[in-house]
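Hi everyone,

Forwarding the result from last night's run.
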Amino acid sequence: MHVDYKKIGMRLAQRRKEINMKQNTLAEKTNLSNNHISNIENGHSIPSLETFAKICNTLDVTPDYLLLGTLKSNNIPQNIVDKLNLCDPTSLSLISQIIDVILKEQ
């Protein structure tokens, strides 16, 4: 299997921007240099497994999202997961009911 580090870096940068995090903030939170984060985002550096895990945790994203561009385990795009995480329990209940209606129609 070929690993496309440029795409991983692009998804990493995209996710960082989605949550309004600057590159230097990610560097600080992961104890990495800003230059190293930049090189990973540009596909010029390959992060170690430990570094990759730190980045995933800091960006609150699953490894499969950065590696594959999807949440392979359940096929829910990250932007939907992010929005659901912002909902209160009442809204989540309503969303669940809407999903039930959609599933009944299929």
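The chain has seven helices and no strands.

Cheers,
N.
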